[in-house]
Amino acid sequence: MSFCFNFDVPAQSTSPDDVDGNEPQNGKKDNTAKYMEDDAKPAEPVKEAKEHLPLSDPQLLLRDAVAETVTIGTLPLLHFLNETVFEKTASEREDEEKILCRTVEQRSDLISGVYEGGLKVWECTYDLLELLEKDGETFGGKAVLDLGCGAGLLGILALHRGARKIHFQDYNSTVIEQLTVPNVILNCQEEDEVDSEDDKEGRGTGKVQEEDGCKKKGKREVKDGSPPPKKRAADPSQHHSLAKCRFFSGDWSTFLALVKKEDPRPKYDIIFTSETIYNTAYYPVLHETLHRLLAPDGLVYLATKSHYFGVGGGLHLFETFVEQRGVFSLDHLWDGEEGLQRHVVVLRFRMAKSTGRSKAAGFDTQ
């Protein structure tokens, strides 16, 4: 899809209704937070969260699909639907939100309160994938949330590498239904085929064997038009990997309220979020969501640019916001120096970093 940085982002109300009544831990006056919250005026009604179930016939989602393949070092191949196809077939797709036609007409990456950029795989997502490849994270047995997931590549990687459950969340239901879910199904098919071939050759758990035995090292590569061959998708209920996944859409405040109703409340060992701090008005509800859903010893991986021109957010402002809240520590894992500076940082509970006992700091771990 053709995009330009033509942001239409008036401030939006993002404060949840007194979520657990949390206050900054360090006692400092939260001037940054106050400025951001005071400056946030509702542009659209808050989008209610809902859970999306994969269709019983995923072939409807993958019909005439054209995919791309991301190859990064030793990572499993990651497949996702080609963005240009959405532009050319917008009128043929189910889209109650009408975001496909509006993004094409306005040639805009963001329309605040309407469309939040989920149809594009942003540069910082690749930065985080490369860092995960370098660090060799396997995700074995972990609960993972891909927050603001878009195409879902980060969550799909966790799925490939042994996470026990992966939840995907994006603002737009069209993104979840037309992009995220099909991408997960596409990758589940590929994984099932690899496992089947390995079983035939008597090698047992083939995906692990493939990862351990792969010696390929290379730069990021996106192969246009080179997906797995078109094939009929199987019943999603037959995909063991897909059974680990859940899909949600909606505003972060309503998403948090929705999952908090579950018993037990989900807690995630790892939360991925890429290119989500472009608007300072969103910081309070993003911070609250991370605070309430991260496991006591969990990690938040945030990939971002230093500054988002035309919108106003960026890493420096978010770091200041996090510091004033006093809940998380923030450490830089990677800083790109070329062009528009990009970064990957990690957030963890302050007490988790120093003692491994975040509960002692009075954090909500229920």
The biggest beta sheet reads: 8 strands, mixed
Q: Which blocks of ≥5 consecutive residues have pLDDT under 50?
A: 1-30, 37-42, 194-219, 225-234, 356-366
Count the E strands: 11
Q: Reading side by side through the largest sheet, how are the strands ordered?
A: 1-7-5-4-8-9-11-10
Radius of gyration: 20 Å
Structural class: alpha/beta
Morphology call: globular
Number of helical segments with 4 or more residues: 12
Mean pLDDT value: 76
Q: What percent strand?
A: 15-25%
* Helix amount: 25-40%
Separation of termini?
Answer: 42 Å
What series of H and E elements makes up the topology?
A: HEHEEHHHEHEHHEEHEHEHEEH
Word description of this protein:
This protein is of the alpha/beta class and 366 residues long. The protein has helices spanning 31-39, 59-62, 83-88, 99-106, 123-135, 153-160, 173-200, 206-213, 252-260, 283-293, 315-325, 350-354, and strands spanning 50-52, 67-71, 78-81, 143-147, 165-170, 221-223, 245-249, 268-274, 294-305, 328-335, 342-349. An eight-stranded mixed beta sheet has the order 1-7-5-4-8-9-11-10, with helices on both faces. Strands 3-2-6 form a three-stranded antiparallel beta sheet. The model is unreliable at 1-30, 37-42, 194-219, 225-234 and 356-366 (pLDDT under 50).
